[in-house]
UniProtKB/TrEMBL annotation:
Xref: CDD domains: metallo-hydrolase-like_MBL-fold
InterPro entries: MBL_Glyoxalase_II, Metallo-B-lactamas, RibonucZ/Hydroxyglut_hydro
Name of the featured protein: Metallo-beta-lactamase domain-containing protein
Lineage: Bacteria, Bacillati, Bacillota, Bacilli, Bacillales
PANTHER family: HYDROXYACYLGLUTATHIONE HYDROLASE GLOC (PTHR46233:SF3)
GO molecular function: hydrolase activity; metal ion binding
Gene3D superfamilies, alphabetized: Ribonuclease Z/Hydroxyacylglutathione hydrolase-like (3.60.15.10)
Cofactor: Zn(2+)
Keyword Cell membrane (UniProt): no
Keyword field: Hydrolase, Metal-binding, Zinc
KW Transmembrane (keyword) present: no
Stretches assigned to the Metallo-beta-lactamase domain: 12-191
Domain of life: Bacteria
């Protein structure tokens, strides 16, 4: 499988594009939809789905542009179903005043943890709330990698001072859902560089003493 990390939007949120057999899945298209389409077109890949780790404004800005262009479904946890259409809930009303983000509802609602098969892609969807109520992480067991959204970063963790955030819940999610994965699992976060489970177990100061 090929993948690329593409920082997009006002906060340069990491968007990820994964490819197998010329089909691709997009994780968190945060903005600059035309730039993302141009990249995909250059590769001659065919998108088949958009996966959202959560619905904060900096992760969803290009959703409608990509969805409408390729006519593909968007996956999001049901606890944040209303966030896509509500600028107050997704944070754009506060963080980008004058530029509220309101997009169409998700096509597929995630209601629990399950195995998601999209063509050649086999994900395990893990519920990892704490940064936001509906935060999920997408684990590719065969590839040894996980898309953690804003739950776990290199030597940091997601903020919990936004709507629905909960620090204890976030730490529980990290320890019970992420740190139990094989230590060589690659972590692809919503911001910053990639890392791995082993390094975060041993070096992340926010996880010490939990």
């Amino acid at each position: 499988m090929k993948w690329n990390q593409i920082p997009l939007g006002p906060l340069q949120t990491n968007c990820y594009v994964m490819e197998k057999a010329e089909k691709c899945v997009i994780v968190d298209p945060g903005g600059e939809g035309d730039k993302l389409i141009q990249y995909i077109q250059t590769k001659k890949w065919q998108p088949i789905a958009i996966l959202l780790t959560h619905a904060h404004f900096d992760h969803i800005g290009a959703v409608d542009v990509i969805r409408d262009y390729y006519q593909i479904p968007v996956y999001l946890h049901e606890k944040e179903a209303k966030w896509l259409v509500d600028a107050a809930l997704n944070g754009s009303q506060s963080f980008t005043p004058g530029h509220p983000i309101k997009i169409k509802p998700a096509d597929q609602m995630i209601t629990n943890e399950f195995d998601l098969v999209l063509g050649e892609f086999h994900f395990t969807v893990l519920e990892t709330p704490g940064h936001s109520p509906g935060s999920v992480s997408y684990y590719l067991r065969d590839e040894g990698m996980i898309f953690s959204g804003d739950v776990l970063f290199q030597q940091s963790v997601g903020r919990t001072d936004l709507r629905g955030g909960n620090e204890q819940q976030l730490l529980t999610s990290i320890h019970e859902k992420l740190l139990v994965l094989p230590e060589d699992t690659i972590v692809l976060p919503g911001h910053g560089p990639i890392t791995n489970i082993s390094d975060e177990m041993n070096q992340n100061p926010f996880l010490n003493g939990f």
